[in-house]
Structures are given as C-alpha cells and as structure tokens.
Amino acid sequence: MISAIVLINADVDRIPEVAQAIAELEGVTEVYSVTGDVDLIAMVRVRQHDDFADVIADRLNKVDGVVGTQTHIAFRTYSRHDLEAAFSLGFDG
To answer: Per the database record, which ranges form the Transcription regulator AsnC/Lrp ligand binding domain (predicted)?
Structure first.
C-alpha cells in the first residue's frame, strides 16, 4: 500500500458535507476536520502510484465544495503500532 496525505481547502459553509463525500470515495480511508491553514485532511491509500490520479485528481478534487488541495505522498510510515508489533516479536532495535 502507498499512502498520501491530502490537505484540503473547502467551501466553509459545506465542510461537513464535503468531508462526508470525500470519506465515501474508494481509496480514502479517513477524513479529518482540522484547525489551521486547511479545512480537512484525507488519508488516501492505494496499491500503485497511478491509482492516486484516479482517487485524487479524478474524484477527490472534483467533489463539490473542494476549493483546493495539496498532496503529500508518504515514502515511509512510522507508527507506535508498528514498533510495538516489532518488539512483541522479539526485535530489540
């Protein structure tokens, strides 16, 4: 799986509806309503890089109420869950 973090600016009057529409897209695993410079953050997970075009450019960017996006493709993932799993298997760093 390849992950991308998509920062989304949305029509302020429609943030909940935009978030729900994005959350229903195939490839989108989570959508967060956030404070700061953007309105929403979506986590997108796909099998191949080419799939990002289908999910982000062809569908997410076309959701009514999306004003703009910035996409950040992850090249490595770190999480507490991954570290705890490694230690439970006997790895010690």
So the answer is: 6-77
